[in-house]
Design brief:
alpha/beta, Rossmann fold
């Protein structure tokens, strides 16, 4: 049985660009996801409801704690919520950057709506499969 039949899937969007937060939140809500948007990793961590999300959409380059650091902290704390990274500045030729991404999907900004939705759908389909640490 599909999870969407039992509850609306909750996605946390963490991006320091207000226009990205607004556009992506609207897009996700229009596709029947619940979306809570945060301007920083720190604001997400301060929200008690943050722990109850089904998926994280994380900007890599955030002010303060970056998306990789947030994912790493959550993993250290035993949280295994699936993560999708988004970035306007991929450093795909950097071995260190590739290790940081690990096997988590990454969508490059600017992205097409269908590209983002497909990545989220695939991530949610595979969420019961363990993600290897970075």
């Amino acid at each position: 049985m599909n999870d969407t039949a039992s509850h609306t899937l909750k996605i946390a969007l963490i991006d320091d660009d207000a226009s990205v937060r607004s556009a992506v939140s609207r897009l996700l809500r229009s596709h029947n996801y619940t979306c809570k948007a945060y301007e920083s990793a720190e604001s997400a961590l301060a929200d008690p409801d943050f722990a109850s999300v089904d998926c994280l959409v994380l900007d890599v380059q955030l002010s303060g704690m970056n998306g990789f650091a947030l994912r790493d902290r959550l993993q250290r704390d035993g949280v295994s919520t699936p993560c999708l990274f988004i970035t306007a500045h991929p450093e795909s030729s950097s071995p260190e950057w590739m290790r940081s991404v690990g096997n988590h999907p990454c969508v490059i900004k600017p992205f097409d709506e269908s590209q983002l939705l497909a990545a989220i759908h695939k991530l949610l389909e595979n969420r019961n499969q363990p993600m290897s640490p970075s």
